[in-house]
Amino acid sequence: MNTSDFDYNLPEELIAQTPLKDRSSSKLLVVDKEANNYEDRHFTDIVDYLHSGDALVLNETKVLPARFFGYRADTGGKIEVLLLKDLGNNTWECLTRPQKRLKADSNRSLYFFKDENDNTPLFGAHVKKILDDGITHLTFTCDNRELLKNLDIIGTMPLPPYIHEKLKEQSRYQTVYAKNLGSAAAPTAGLHFTPELLEKAAQKGVKIVKITLHVGLGTFRPVQVENIKDHKMHTESYAISKDAADTLNEIKASGGKIVAVGTTSVRTLETVMKKHGKFVAEKGETDIFIYPGYQFKAIDALITNFHLPKSTLLMLVSAFANQDLIKSAYEHAVKEKYRFFSFGDAMLII
Question: What is the pLDDT of residues 99-158, one digit of tens each?
């Protein structure tokens, strides 16, 4: 199976640059796997497809203001840093640009300032390891608690490169239920939910279950090989509580549906179910890569956004539904001028 099998034509004007004023006012394309068809709805209709005894699984990760700039100690050259994953001992996996100007060095090799006019650095870092694809391990001179405080000063939301408009409200790149800091990108399917919609679902008897997967390179790294089996997924951290695991097992046993909000929730649930044959409370790392041919064991329905061509996310969605059906649904979405990607419209696959 080739990466080119997951390509499609998308007019640039359909890439959503800003979020809608009302989170829940987006379009919703409902894809029925069994009937092999789809229909146009609005996201506020999502509750019509949720029933008493179902579980709605939310990823409550919170996006770090993880993009910031530093300066090389030797030349003063500017370096862009994007935090990806906490490796422990004040060391983070990062994307750095331009990486070719960095060298692994035990001395402090980067400085970070409050602004360009400030001569006193807030903190520093040294390059511990340089890997491929722009990935660098940086060890910071401050602990994580202090680092997060500094990010509130110098960090910005790591919006995807296809978004060119400035985000006026940083909170619009967070879900309304975001809680656990650690992501380098938002779990964007959840951006459509409002507290009112979640309350309507709960009043209907739907169990709201919260888990965590911190979005990193494994989710948004582009596929750069033609044979998708040659693509290497990077690991991402996840956590499921005992209450969440018990609720999900009860829903499964009673015949209710597990409705995953976003591909990050899918990857977490499928990882745990694949390992244990049931939902268990645990923290771990996953590099699961889901593409057509995968047999789903955990989820019954999926709420997701419209994904980039040739992406692992489109491959996952194509695995959950018939690949030809998803291709046709995307063509329909383009024709009907749906909004695509992070701030775009939604799809429900049942």
Answer: 988 888 756 689 999 987 888 999 999 999 999 888 999 999 999 999 999 999 999 999
User: How much helix, strand and coil, in percent to the nearest 5, is found in the chain?
Assistant: 30, 30, 40
Q: What is the 3-state secondary structure (H, E, C) of 62-130?
A: EECCCEEEEEECCCCCEEEEEEEEEEECCEEEEEEECHHHCCCCCCCCEEEECCCCCCCEEEEEEEEEE
Q: CA-CA distance, 148 to 151, in Å (whole number)?
A: 5
pLDDT tens profile 210-266: 999 999 876 777 899 999 999 999 899 999 999 999 999 999 999 999 999 999 999
CA proximity to 10, closest of 310, 346, 290, 324: 310
The pLDDT tens digits for 203-225 are: 999 999 999 999 987 677 789 99
Using DSSP, state whether 308 is helix, strand or coil.
Answer: coil
pTM of the shown model: 0.94
The phi, psi pair for 99, rounded to 5°, reads -70, -30
In the chain the domains, ranked by start, together with CATH numbers, are: 3-63+169-349 (3.40.1780.10), 67-154 (2.40.10.240)
Helix (H, G, I), strand (E, B) or coil at 215: coil
Per-chain mean pLDDT for the chain: 95
Tokens of 12: 């640039």
**Angstrom distances, CA of residue 178 to CA of 25, 43, 169, 187, 241:** 20, 19, 15, 10, 16
The Cα 114–Cα 311 span in angstroms is 36
Give the span between the Cα atoms of 290 and 267, in whole angstroms: 8
